[in-house]
């Protein structure tokens, strides 16, 4: 920051350019029209062309400890996932808790604990089989489960250095500024305080937000579920507007028999509680499709149906899956489309022919979208729940290639190396985490040793694992680290910090902590948490230098605030997945999230002031 002849601060061209560039990136992230990593890499390229990032520093993020550690954690998760340990832990919770609210909170607590030692998305993904098992066995609605689980994994990531990428990124920035980064458990006091307060808010607010229908509240009070209250009761008493509809899109056929006589489009829609999008008879589509159009056995029907109604029609033999095979040896599995899956945007007809050979997608479940068919051209979206049919090995290969998350186990021969399904990999991982927590080795070295042992033991196929990595998270970190550094080296962060301290906006410890925390919490619902930290971290460090406050405290305030993302479905991948899987409305996020944000933010700020 330069000063003119009168001593007034003057913004330099570089400061102006980096500020405008970051604001443009914020807008592009918020509108969500382009992939986040594409926007970040484009911003880094623009910064390099404008001279804001030196050529020698463009690829500095590739060797940053934060990036290396994230890669190692994602590799480790690929070994721990097939063990089904966390699904078994979820099932053990079902035997201990018999009321929906304690069961949901216990499952969320397990997800929070898991998130302390791995990426948030990885922890949420590993808990999905347990969540679907809970839904199937206890008949608990999806909308009761996924939002608390998403919030819990975000809160659990605050505890440790490796719990979430922003924590690692903050440690790297702190080391660049002061010569020493955060220790493994430096985040624990504030993270645990935020988690306890957040869980308390969820426990108190859950019955009044997600359990908003009167039928739901009575079911919780009686220890039952919506399904036990009788079919249709929730809709009649609470109104259909209280919950976003869930539809299963399926290609089915009317089964031959007496029940098929006199069936019309309108009567079948009433049975399915949905819509018939098209009817194909002898290779030709019937158009126009009128309510009185007769439906005959053998017609291929593209239908959107409510899950319970479709299940009833299938079990009663009224309809059958048109794409199902006749071989009774074929198995079925449910799988969720993840944000980093290569299947996103693809349709059934364009899937890899060699990988998809022998695997049929029977139905696609998700939030309603207008689609007239045919079924083979239905695009797959993040959060879609697929019902697959095929031979066991073919199903496993399909799910692995497209990086889906299996949520319904199928009996099939093991495809993992011998021993990879036991507790030994988890013990090795726990040993690496302990070594890092005790400060004996940096996190990237300790976890690197774990990855090396996994490879030597044959538990990890490194070539396949690297192909299946969530590269979007990695490239986002690689690109945003130099941009965050540029905000400091150009003097833009110092200029912003000088303006804030000069105006006495943040001239004391409590004001600085809560102002930076609130600023991060307001930005992160609209952009990803890594970008929020990259923009605010240099400002926090400059505020610390100008006021003499602890840089560890102020940088941690920004870091924690960037992860308290509870107000929108698109600020974090976990919220996006929960939004699709639970079929929430947008308003459900601020309605359920504001008490969690308020309580966890206040608790984290108080803990920072007490411990730092």
From TrEMBL:
Give the InterPro entries listed for this entry.
Cit_transptr-like_dom, DASS-Related_Transporters, RCK_C_sf
Q: What are the TM regions of this chain, as residue ranges?
A: 12-31, 37-55, 62-81, 101-132, 144-162, 182-208, 445-462, 474-500, 512-541, 553-572, 592-611
Q: Which residues form the Citrate transporter-like domain?
A: 26-519
State where the protein is found: Membrane
Locations of Low complexity compositional bias? 221-230
Quick one: a GO biological-process term for this protein?
Answer: potassium ion transport
Membrane topology classification = Multi-pass membrane protein
Question: Record's GO cellular component, any one?
Answer: plasma membrane
Spans annotated as Disordered: 221-241
Keywords (alphabetical) are: Membrane, Repeat, Transmembrane, Transmembrane helix, Transport
**Protein name listed in UniProt:** Cation transporter
What species was this sequence derived from?
Rhizobium straminoryzae
Q: What is the lineage of its organism?
A: Bacteria, Pseudomonadati, Pseudomonadota, Alphaproteobacteria, Hyphomicrobiales
């Amino acid at each position: 920051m330069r000063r003119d002849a009168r001593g007034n601060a003057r913004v330099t061209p570089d400061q102006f350019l980096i500020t405008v560039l970051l604001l443009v990136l914020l807008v592009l992230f918020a509108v969500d029209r382009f992939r986040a990593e594409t926007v970040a890499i484009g911003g880094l390229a623009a910064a390099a062309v404008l001279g804001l990032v030196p050529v020698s520093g463009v690829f500095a993020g590739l060797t940053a400890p934060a990036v290396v550690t994230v890669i190692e954690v994602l590799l480790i998760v690929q070994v721990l996932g097939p063990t089904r340990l966390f699904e078994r832990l979820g099932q053990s919770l079902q035997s201990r808790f018999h009321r929906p609210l304690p069961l949901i909170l216990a499952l969320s607590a397990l997800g929070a604990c898991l998130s302390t030692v791995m990426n948030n998305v990885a922890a949420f993904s590993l808990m999905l089989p347990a969540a679907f098992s809970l839904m199937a066995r206890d008949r608990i609605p999806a909308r009761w489960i996924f939002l608390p689980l998403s919030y819990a994994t975000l809160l659990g990531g605050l505890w440790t250095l490796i719990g979430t990428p922003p924590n690692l990124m903050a440690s790297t920035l702190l080391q660049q500024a002061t010569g020493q980064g955060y220790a493994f458990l430096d985040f624990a006091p504030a993270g645990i305080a935020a988690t306890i307060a957040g869980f308390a808010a969820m426990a108190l607010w859950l019955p009044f937000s997600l359990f908003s229908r009167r039928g739901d509240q009575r079911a919780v009070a009686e220890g039952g579920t919506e399904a036990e209250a009788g079919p249709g009761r929730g809709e009649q008493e609470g109104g259909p507007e209280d919950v976003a509809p869930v539809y299963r899109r399926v290609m089915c056929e009317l089964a031959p028999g007496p029940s098929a006589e006199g069936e019309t489009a309108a009567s079948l829609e009433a049975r399915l509680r949905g819509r018939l999008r098209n009817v194909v008879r002898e290779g030709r589509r019937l158009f126009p499709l009128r309510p009185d159009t007769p439906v005959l056995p053998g017609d291929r029907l593209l239908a959107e149906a409510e899950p319970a109604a479709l299940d009833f029609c299938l079990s009663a033999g009224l309809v059958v899956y048109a794409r199902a095979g006749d071989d009774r040896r074929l198995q079925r599995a449910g799988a969720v489309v993840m944000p980093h899956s290569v299947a996103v945007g693809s349709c059934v007809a364009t899937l890899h022919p060699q990988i998809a050979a022998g695997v049929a997608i029977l139905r696609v479940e998700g939030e309603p979208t207008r689609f007239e068919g045919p079924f083979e051209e239905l695009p797959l979206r993040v959060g879609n729940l697929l019902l697959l049919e095929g031979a066991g090995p073919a199903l496993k290969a399909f799910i692995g290639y497209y990086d889906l998350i299996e949520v319904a186990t199928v009996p099939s021969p093991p495809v993992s190396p011998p021993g990879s399904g036991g507790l030994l990999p988890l013990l090795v991982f726990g040993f690496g985490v302990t070594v890092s927590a005790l400060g004996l080795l940096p996190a990237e070295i300790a976890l690197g040793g774990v990855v090396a042992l996994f490879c030597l033991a044959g538990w990890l196929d490194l070539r396949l694992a690297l192909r299946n990595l969530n590269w979007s998270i990695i490239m986002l970190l690689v690109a945003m680290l130099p941009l965050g550094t540029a905000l400091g080296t150009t003097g833009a962060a110092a200029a912003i910090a000088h303006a804030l301290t000069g105006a006495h906006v943040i001239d004391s410890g409590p004001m600085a902590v809560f102002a930076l925390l609130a600023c991060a919490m307001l930005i992160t619902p609209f952009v990803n948490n890594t970008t929020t930290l990259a923009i605010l971290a240099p400002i926090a460090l400059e505020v610390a230098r100008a006021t003499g406050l602890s840089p560890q405290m102020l940088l941690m305030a920004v870091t924690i605030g960037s992860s308290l993302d509870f107000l929108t479905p698109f600020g974090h991948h976990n919220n996006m997945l929960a939004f699709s899987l639970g079929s929430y409305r947008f308003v459900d996020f601020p309605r359920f999230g504001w008490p969690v944000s308020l309580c966890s933010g206040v608790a984290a700020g108080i803990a920072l002031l007490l411990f730092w």
